[in-house]
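Retro notes - structure team

What went well: the batch runner handled both jobs without manual restarts.
What didn't: labels got mixed up in the shared folder, which is why I'm recording both outputs here explicitly, each with its sequence directly above its tokens.

Job 1
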Amino acid sequence: MHEEGVLDCNEVDRREAMANDKIEFIWNSTLSSINGGDSVTSVTVRNVLTGAEEQVDATGVFSFVGMVPQTDILPDTISKDVHGYIKVDRHQATSMAGVYAVGDCTDTPLRQVVTAAGNGAVAEVSVERYLKETAQLEKIMADTKGNEAVMFYSPYDESSVDRLEHVEALLTPRYKVNLDDITSQTLLYHQLNISSSFAVALYEQGHLKQVVDLNQDSAESKLSLVRQ
């Protein structure tokens, strides 16, 4: 610890720590080394006032690196809160498409290894889905001869699921229909600013022709027109 008697915490926690007879403070000192083989056996601390070193028996070490996130290297296009932590959604996605963040640099209520590992698993799946969606979009845009329809739906909306086959029949054979589950694939859904849970985007020769809200009463009449 640094200056004797000074703790970087709120007053309530300071009093509790100072009164806890299980805690032994080593003041005006820094950690010089962690000693041991397969496990920790001791640590060496150096007094910053005298320069003297002493070895202290220990079976473990908990390193606390501070509260300030090192995110200054990131561009302003990636949103951060007032403290510098990266803002992410439940998929660990940042405000920049294709960029994901995990761990203590993110705006999370619990900063521990177990939560960082869990966030990493979420990010890995999210990245995989992002790359898959990106490849799908590139294929649609590259097709300058055919017609593609991307149908957005939610598997939790039973009425939409029940209509999938019927709507697909209305679109074929003029369009090749691609199903997009908006609970897991959101890239194109957000790019087109679609708010409906059941909609279709129609592309012809790589260009967007129109987006039809399939929850509207006039949806089927619009699809009938595009078949002509």
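Job 2
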Amino acid sequence: MNHCTFAVYPGSFDPITNGHLDLLTRGLKLFDRIIIAVAVNPAKIPLFTIEERLELIRESLKDFPLKERVDVDAFDGLLMDYVKKVGAKAILRGLRAVSDFEYEFQMALMNRRLNSDVETFFLMTGMRWIYISSRIIKEVAMAGGCVKGLVPDPVERKLIEKLARR
């Protein structure tokens, strides 16, 4: 059977990192298309608004070699409702450490209970990026540390600009 496969790559992406882009690149070896779905999470207080995160992702993808196979969108509510709305059958998630696994495993099982037609695919983070997360990037940047090379250039510029106003 020859059919187009696509996955939803959900997250807060506050901000997107080079680790996210690495996972996206590797995910595109498995899927024809990926939707980066920025989640509105009322439990978190983000540094960047949804609109800023969407724009930062789009700017970060300008020179991305496979950008024509990537869509960027936002959603709120249940991920599985969004996945159903766009007609996806796969969710792409990254794992850095055992601590990620427990949470991600619980979420994957709950998502399977909500919709057993959708599979969650886990990719291990590339070794080069295993220690970074959006949270750590923000903490380092807020403390005046350099995040060059850990995030796309548009993200680094926006972090500096945003934190200078604080």
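One thing worth noting from job 2: The first strand starts at residue 6 and ends at 11.
We'll revisit the folder naming next retro.
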